[in-house]
Specification:
This protein is of the alpha+beta class. Helix content is 18%, strand content 29%. It has a 6-stranded antiparallel β-barrel. A 4-stranded mixed β-sheet has the order 6-12-11-9. Strands 10-13 form a two-stranded antiparallel sheet. A hairpin with a 2-residue loop joins strand 11 and strand 12. Helix 2 packs across helix 3. The two termini are 32 Å apart.
């Protein structure tokens, strides 16, 4: 994080909040296995933002890989995170785990997409679940690094329809790519984020229950079959052949 005056959340004094020990759950999209570890956090108790279904809290997490930070407990230099909790506190833990499965699965697709060397690579924020005890109950949050600068843009929605007036090719080509790469079994939509760093995707699948209730397949999104050419490279062994294809897409 660097010095305190470079932290955009410095005035929030999060580093002075009481420390909590939590269990962290990480999902490996390749093996489809969960692993857990313990870590230390500091989190605000009042949300700084709310959506239709979730509220967001500012959080700092002690580094699990930097021994110097852990030894000195220098919280002011720890990275900033956003912890998201469903407004309906009766929401089951399986929903939180499903949300992280979606995001990490989308991140895996982004790595496959980038193998084809598009002019603009895409990525999804690494996300995980935390489980902690508060006021005698177990609570869960979905957590990811805070995007502290840049304009947040939604490119397509849960149904895969284009959003807004600026229709960039990269995010929608990525959605189409996931449909083809999966052999037509699923599609990553609801693409949103800052530049080409995305978060909070939705994955629709033929099976319909892979990623919770939202995974049920709607009618085939227009972006999958209309304004993008059908020449998006798929599962090719020599991605260097396909640069020209991406260039004429305007990615």
């Amino acid at each position: 994080m660097g010095t305190l005056d470079k932290d955009p959340w410095a005035d929030m004094l999060i580093h002075e909040i009481r420390t909590e020990i939590v269990r962290r759950w990480d999902f490996d999209a390749s093996s489809r296995l969960w692993t857990s570890s313990e870590t230390l956090i500091k989190m605000e108790r009042t949300p700084f933002a709310k959506g239709a279904m979730r509220e967001c809290y500012r959080m700092k997490k002690m580094s699990q890989i930097n021994p110097d930070l852990f030894f000195t407990m220098n919280w002011s230099h720890c990275n900033n995170y956003v912890a998201k909790r469903y407004i309906n506190h009766e929401t089951g833990k399986e929903v939180y785990f499903s949300d992280i499965e979606m995001q990490m699965s989308a991140k895996r697709f982004s790595k496959l997409f980038n193998l084809h060397m598009p002019p603009k690579a895409v990525d999804f924020l690494h996300a995980f679940v935390i489980e902690l005890q508060r006021d005698g109950e177990t609570v869960f949050f979905c957590v990811e690094r805070a995007i502290e600068r840049g304009a947040y843009v939604k490119h397509n929605n849960n149904a895969g329809n284009l959003v807004g007036d600026l229709h960039r090719a990269t995010p929608n080509a990525f959605s189409r790519f996931t449909f083809k790469e999966s052999g037509g079994t699923c599609m990553v939509v609801d693409i949103q984020g800052v530049d080409d760093i995305y978060t909070d995707p939705q994955i629709h699948s033929v099976k319909g229950d892979d990623f919770g209730d939202g995974a049920r397949w709607p009618p085939l999104p227009p972006l999958a079959c209309s304004h993008l050419p059908h020449s998006i490279p798929l599962r090719q062994s020599r991605p260097e052949r396909h640069g020209a294809l991406f260039l004429h897409l305007g990615l």
